[in-house]
Automatic annotation (TrEMBL):
Keyword Metal-binding carried by entry: no
InterPro entries on file: Glyco_transf_N, UDP_glucos_trans
Protein's name in the database: Glycosyltransferase N-terminal domain-containing protein
Top-level taxon: Eukaryota
UniProt-listed GO biological process terms: glycoside biosynthetic process
Keyword Nucleus among UniProt keywords: no
Length: 440
């Protein structure tokens, strides 16, 4: 299991979520291309979601390492992931992962890596590594702005956050605090344990000032790794969707998805459906339900909705090849929850965002979408509820109307710039990691 000599071996431990293991895999590939040997350590159910993407090209440089959690009565192995996990079991999953620290110590002894890269709420992984003289570095898949706000709120209470363009309402701040039980601990402790640097899935071009402020708060160098958008999948995997999109005009269709962890309520599904119908814009809508819930897709939708929209829209239940869909020429907008990975994918593909943040860091990301000019947030009522008329209005403005031309242009410019830049951030990451390993 040990890596070949003369290469740096890295053991990665991401949080048990699609939005985390996917960017960890993309970072692994970038490093593998630069003579690193990578071990990605996660639960079997999480590793199964990425196995197909560790292609023959990486078979000698990326190994997947099973991390077994105790199988509790209310947390069987298929729940050892946040994907489809009933929300009330999230704390149980986090605690069970932490209880398995001895398993991680045994894996360290077997693999003997030169470096450990760990996720936002896993400071214990850094403790295990440093106890056997292995340097540990945190890799965060959130925006620098969000982490900076989180640390600021606790370390500089009473002081205004110095970036008014990202002002959050009280309800949105509560959502950020409630994302992870004991949320101050994982950010603060994980950052503090990271050796000298912190890796972040971001770019200095649009988050430079937030990175610098975060660096001043935590006294660590913030090293951006770039967008890390997953490579586009083989079209055979999504042939039916691609054929449907091929029939639509350029920029005429919105992709609608709220990520792998948020489940829309029946009321929210109803408002989104009516908004899509009112907009008269084509759509591909991904709807997900918690594992174990058997729901007929028609039940939460307005009566007759599917018949009325006809060939103008399709609904996919479960998961969809998001990056592949976003890069299709017919996609002119992304109705998104504004998870950070989705934000990055939209930017990379040049698709403007119709932001509908639901929880956690998403409201901050939505503010950033508006600030850099590549989309707009849907206006809610005074209670924070979605309204179909406002959804339709935002979709039409971003995708169809003249008033959205600047957003469409900005999204295209950002995409062209990001794609032209290539992997220049990764070269900086490699330099930092080599310095850490050579100074052990």
């Amino acid at each position: 299991m040990e890596a070949k000599k003369n290469t740096i071996s890295v053991l990665m431990l991401p949080w048990l979520a699609h939005g985390h293991i996917n960017p960890y895999l993309e970072l692994a590939k970038k490093l593998a291309n630069r003579n690193f040997h990578i071990y990605i350590c996660s639960t079997p159910v999480c590793l199964n979601s990425i196995k197909k993407r560790v292609t023959e090209e990486y078979s000698q440089s990326i190994d997947l390492v099973d991390f077994h959690l105790p199988s509790l009565p209310n947390l069987p192995p298929h729940y050892h992931t946040t994907n489809g996990l009933p929300p009330h079991l999230m704390t149980t999953l986090k605690n069970t992962f932490e209880m398995s620290t001895p398993n991680f110590s045994r894996i360290l002894q077997t693999v003997h890596p030169d470096l450990v890269i760990y996720d936002f709420n896993l400071p214990w992984a850094a403790d295990c590594a440093t106890s056997v003289n292995i340097p540990a570095v945190q890799f965060l898949t959130f925006s620098a702005a969000v982490i900076a706000l989180g640390i600021h709120m606790y370390d500089r209470q009473g002081e205004m956050f110095p970036f008014p363009e990202l002002y959050l309402r009280e309800q949105e701040i509560l959502s950020l605090k409630n994302t992870v039980p004991g949320w101050k601990f994982p950010f603060d402790e994980g950052l503090r344990r990271s050796q000298d640097i912190v890796l972040m899935k971001t770019c200095r071009d649009f988050e430079g000032k937030y990175m610098d402020y975060l660096a001043s708060l935590v006294s660590k160098k913030i090293v951006p790794v770039g967008t890390l958008v997953q490579e586009f999948t083989n079209k055979d995997d999504s042939e039916e969707i691609m054929q449907w999109l091929d029939k639509k005009h350029r920029g005429s269709t919105v992709f609608v998805s709220f990520g792998s962890e948020y489940f829309l309520s029946k009321e929210e599904i109803h408002e989104v459906a009516q908004g899509l119908e009112l907009s008269k814009v084509n759509f591909v809508w991904v709807i997900r339900f918690p594992q174990g819930e058997r729901i007929n897709i028609r039940d939460p939708l307005p009566e007759g909705f599917l018949e009325r929209v006809g060939e103008r829209g399709i609904i996919i239940e479960g998961l969809a090849p998001q990056a592949t869909i976003l890069q299709h020429t017919s996609i002119g907008g992304f109705v998104s929850h504004c998870g950070w990975s989705s934000f990055m994918e939209s930017m990379k593909c040049g698709v403007p965002i119709i932001a509908m943040p639901m929880q956690g860091d998403q409201p901050m990301n939505a503010k950033l979408v508006e600030y850099i000019g590549m989309g707009m947030e849907v206006v809610r009522d005074e209670k924070g509820k979605l309204q179909s008329e406002e959804i339709a209005k935002a979709i039409r403005k971003v995708v169809v109307e003249k008033g959205g031309e600047a957003m469409r242009k900005k999204a295209k410019e950002l995409s062209e710039y990001m794609n032209a830049k290539g992997d220049e951030e990764i070269d900086g990451v490699v330099k930092e990691l080599l310095a850490l390993c050579n100074n052990k």
